[in-house]
Amino acid sequence: MSEEKNPQVVMETSMGTVKIELFKDKAPISVRNFLSYVKEAYYDDTIFHRVIKSFMIQGGGLDENMQPKKTKFAIKNEATNGLKNVRGTLAMARTSVVDSATSQFFINVVDNAFLDHSGKTPDRFGYAVFGQVVEGMDIVDAIREVKTGNKAGHQDVPVETVFIKSIKLAE
């Protein structure tokens, strides 16, 4: 029997299409959580609300008016799964609380080793990688280059809104 393939999703953004493979074997909780939001079309019309050219692009929780969408319960942090925060990977965004990730994710645009698991304390626990861009890294790079400013008390917000139109399971 062949090993079941990792699920893939297609993210339609206002700047183009990005295809992402999800590592359900290494990050089952994060992937199950992410796909539950995908199935409910939760990400439709959310935005990339934080873009830092030399770091990452973050989205999946706010609408174009910078209003947070209602999320489900927080999940366990899987940063101990051995996956690294390298360019092109997706990781769960969280607060300073280790197990606080809900719907928001970020795409690393450079290698961010300082986000990897390096200890048990909250500041060293790390951010759980759960996926990898397999097509459309040029779109991610285009998003990272947009002009940013301050908006509604947030920093590094794209001046021209970058929408996540939808994220759907790939056929």
Automatic annotation (TrEMBL):
UniProt-listed Enzyme Commission number(s): 5.2.1.8
Family matches, as InterPro entries: Cyclophilin-like_dom_sf, Cyclophilin-type_PPIase, Cyclophilin-type_PPIase_CS, Cyclophilin-type_PPIase_dom, E_coli_cyclophilin_A-like
SUPFAM superfamilies linked to this entry: Cyclophilin-like (SSF50891)
Keywords in alphabetical order: Isomerase, Rotamase
Catalytically driven reaction(s): [protein]-peptidylproline (omega=180) = [protein]-peptidylproline (omega=0)
Sequence ranges assigned to domain PPIase cyclophilin-type in this UniProt record: 12-169
GO biological process: protein folding
Pfam families according to UniProt: Pro_isomerase
Family annotation (Gene3D superfamilies): Cyclophilin-like (2.40.100.10)
UniProt GO MF annotations: peptidyl-prolyl cis-trans isomerase activity
Protein family: Belongs to the cyclophilin-type PPIase family.
Summary of the function given for this chain in its UniProt record: PPIases accelerate the folding of proteins. It catalyzes the cis-trans isomerization of proline imidic peptide bonds in oligopeptides.
Name of the protein in question: Peptidyl-prolyl cis-trans isomerase
Organism: Geomonas silvestris
Lineage, uppermost ranks: Bacteria, Pseudomonadati, Thermodesulfobacteriota, Desulfuromonadia, Geobacterales
